Amino acid sequence: MWVYEKKLQYPIKIKNTNPKLAKMIITQYGGPDGELGASLRYLSQRFSMPYPELKAILTDIGTEELGHLEMIGAIVYQLTKNLTPEEIKKAGFEDYFVDHTTGIYPTSASGQPFTASSIAVKGDPITDLHEDLAAEQKARTTYDNILRFCDDPDVKDAIRFLRAREIVHYQRFGEGLRICTDKLNSKNFYAFNPSFDKK
Amino acid sequence: MSKRELLLKRIAAIDFAIVELNLYMDTHPDDDEINEKLNTYREKSANLRKEFESLYGPLTLDNKEKNQWRWIADPWPWNNCEGDEC
C-alpha cells in the first residue's frame, strides 16, 4: 500500500525551456537505467528476499525511486512547456513530439519505449543485490552523462541531487549484501540460493 | 520565492533527513542514537506540515481539515506556477 504526498522530494522550478535537454533527461524516466525500472526492480525483488533488513531496504529505496520518477517527469514537463513549432524543430524535438506531443512518456533517450528487459529479478538475494549495486552505478553514470550536456543551473541542481541518491543507495545495498552473506548458513559457503535451497 | 515555496522547501529539507536516516536504520536497526534523531526530525516535519496545510491545503489525503477538497487545488507538484496561472 502506498500514500501519495502532494509534493516533490526535492523542489523543481525551471525558468527556461529546453526541449533538447528534455529529450536526454527522459531516459531517466523510462530508459534502461531510469527511475521507473529502478522502482519496479526493487519493489519486485523484495518478495523473494529472506531477511527483514533486505525486505525493508528494497521497499524503502523502491518507494524513494517512485519519488525520483515524479521529479524526472516534472523536469521534462517544465523543460517542454509552451513550446512553439519553431522551437520544437530547432531543438530536434519533432520525433518525440509527433508521437507524444509534450506528454511524458517512458522512453529512453534513443527512443526505445520502456522495457522490463532492462531490469532483472532472479529470486536469489545474492544475485539480486549484485544487480542492484550495478543498477545504482549505471544510473549514476547516466546522470553524469546528462550533466555533461546541462548548463542550466535549475536543472543541474536537481540532477546533482538525484545523482547523489544513487551513491547513497549503492552504499545501503552494499550493507544489505554484507548482511545477507553474514547470515548464510555456515555450511553454505558456496552461496547457494538462500531463498530457495533451504537445506 | 513565494512563502508557499519557502515552506515547502523547508519541509523537503526535513523530510529528506527522515528518508536518509530511515534508509540507514534499515541496515543498522540497533542504532538508538540515530533512531532518536529520526524522531526529532519527524516531530519537526509534523509541525511544518501542519503550518503548510492550514495555509495551502492538504499534502496527504488523511488530512482532517474541514475543506478537504482543497486537495484538488493547483499547483500540483510538477507545476512551476501559483494558483490560477497553472
Fill in the keyword field for this structure.
heterodimer; A: mainly alpha; Ferritin; 8 helices; 0% strand; B: 86 residues; mainly alpha; 2 helices; elongated
Count up the helices of chain A: 8
Could you list the spans of chain B in which at least 5 consecutive residues all have pLDDT below 50?
Answer: none
CATH topology of chain A: Ferritin
What structural class is derived from the secondary structure elements of chain B? mainly alpha
The domain tally of chain B reads 1
Let me know the number of strands of chain A: 0
Secondary-structure element series of chain A: HHHHHHHH
Description:
The complex is a heterodimer of chains A (199) and B (86). Chain A is mainly α and 199 residues long. Chain A is built from 8 helices and no strands. The relative contact order of chain A is 0.19. The model of chain A has no long low-confidence stretch (mean pLDDT 96). Chain B has one domain (3-85). Chain B has helices spanning 3-27, 32-56. Chain B is elongated, with a radius of gyration of 15 Å. The mean pLDDT of chain B is 92. Chains A and B meet through helix 4 and helix 8 of A and helix 1 of B.
